Protein: N-(5'-phosphoribosyl)anthranilate isomerase
Amino acid sequence: MRVKICGITNLEDAQDAVELGADALGFVFYEKSPRYITAQDARQIVDKLPPFVQTVGLFVNESSKHINDICHLSGMQMAQIIDDEDNTEFENLNMKYLEVIRAKSKSDLEYLNKHNYYLVDAFVEGFGGAGKRVALEWFENIDCSKIVLAGGLNASNLQELKKYNFFAVDVSSGVEASKGKKDKEKMKEFIQKANGN
Ligand SMILES: O=C(O)c1ccccc1NCC(=O)[C@H](O)[C@H](O)COP(=O)(O)O
Structure:
């Protein structure tokens, strides 16, 4: 399974995640988050990354212009978007994007367009990174092959996902030492388990 390590705030964590085999790194451009990073600081990290690592910018209820500007400035290849307030004009985005479904119940998963990729996270007031899980039984009888699963994942519970065939997993607090700082051993164990080792 592919792995995105989210909430990168510093170069050391980014380089450790890449060395350990992460496919994508997430940068939170939401000012109220404890993992918030400026576009300029993210750029300093992105410029030092090797090729073939996808950089993903996280946005909450922002306009397309803002998302385009920040992604351009920071070197994000993709945007991950929460748009509860219908602020984002998706057709005006200059980059690939993943829409975030903040699931409160199984009914939130029933109308996903089967041709699109989505990131499904647990609904939390603070928008993400809270360690709250989505109930796995909600995915019964759903094709998960285009779903990135987030929310409360860690090395100990990845095993439970096996039969669902998710496209990828996304983790933040489950591999942290403290908010905004990753724990290298936790990232190692998480990536190994996601890769079936
Ligand atoms: O991480 C944050 O602080 C955050 C703030 C606002 C919007 C999204 C945020 N994170 C989103 C993520 O993609 C997290 O990786 C995802 O919610 C999973 O987090 P966790 O349950 O801690 O693994």
